Amino acid sequence: MTRISLTVDGAKVSDDVEPRLLLVQYLRERLGKTGTVIGCDTSNCGACTVHLDGTSVKSCNVLAVQADGAEVTTIEGLAQNGELHPVQEAFRECHGLQCGFCTPGMIMQSVDLLNNNPKPTEEEIRLGLEGNLCRCTGYHNIVRAVQHASGQSEEAHA
Ligand code: FES
Ligand code: FES
């Protein structure tokens, strides 16, 4: 066992974990953060995406011990004071989801994308989300949602 201390969605936590425990398992099974989901066992789908010190990572691809000392934000930590994050709001407004399984990861990746590129082109959005798979939407409304969140909604609806 290895002792880790980190901040998750604003709360400080410390735990003894197996060195092989994945961050996604730690979040879901120890902390009950089941908003972060597991969609594959090949690091392909992106459903497990969270922010590690402000940068998106696939949490099935990170060991919990690697998050020691870090700040982790999950989909459950995005809303502030009962208000949805603007990207969450945009997904809702633009119908950027159907079954919703990919949505936590899509939103976390989209937030990171917009942090790095506040006014992305459609191509940049598609490229930025290429590590996140969606079986339902055909991606069109997801791209619209990101454009909407970036304040480019007129182009999005054109
Ligand atoms: S669960 Fe599919 S990439 Fe992490
Ligand atoms: S909304 Fe169903 S997988 Fe994306």
From TrEMBL:
Residues 2-78 form the 2Fe-2S ferredoxin-type domain. Pfam families: Fer2, Fer2_2. InterPro entries: 2Fe-2S-bd, 2Fe-2S-bd_dom_sf, 2Fe-2S_ferredoxin-like_sf, 2Fe-2S_ferredoxin-type, Beta-grasp_dom_sf, Diverse_Oxidoreductases. The keyword Cytoplasm does not apply. Keywords: 2Fe-2S, Iron, Iron-sulfur, Metal-binding, Oxidoreductase. The keyword Ribosomal protein does not apply. This is (2Fe-2S)-binding protein. It comes from Nocardioides conyzicola.
